[in-house]
Amino acid sequence: MNFRHAAALALVGWYLMVPPHLTDTTFDSKAPLSEWSVYAAFDTAVACDGAQASEEQGRKSKVAANPNNAAFKSLVKSLLSSQCIATEDPRLKEK
Questions:
Q1: What is the mean pLDDT of the chain?
Q2: How far is residue 56 from each of residues 28, 33, 49, 73, 91, measured CA to CA in Å?
Q3: To bridge 48 with a disulfide, which of 40, 42, 74, 90 should be the other Cys (CB 3.0-4.6 Å)?
Q4: Taking the CB of residue 47, how many other CB atoms lie within 10 A of it?
């Protein structure tokens, strides 16, 4: 790997992205990535993946404690559909 390639890789960040919410209780996981929201930003894919797993587990346990909150359940479902995406991914610029 040459220096330029290594430097370019070092500049890549990662977003944990969630699908757009249509209402308080529904979301569109099939929408283009350019319409998704950034939930959090990370320096590495490993950090993003770890945060994604932690968020999912933490939210699932809260839903179990309060099963009647439909909006919160929808947030958890959207987190289950979340994706870690490189900041340079061309799909983020599609319109």
A1: 83
A2: 18, 20, 11, 11, 24
A3: 42
A4: 16
Percentage of residues of the chain with pLDDT beyond 90: 46
The sign of the dihedral angle between the CA atoms of 81, 85, 90, 93 is: positive
pLDDT of residue 3: 47
The CA-CA-CA angle for residues 36, 89, 17, to 5°, reads 30
- Residue carrying the six token digits 């939930």: 39
Per the structure block, which two tokens stand in for 53?
A: 């797993």
Per-residue confidence band for 87, with pLDDT thresholds at 50, 70 and 90: very high
Strands 37-42 and 83-86, bridge-based pairing: unpaired
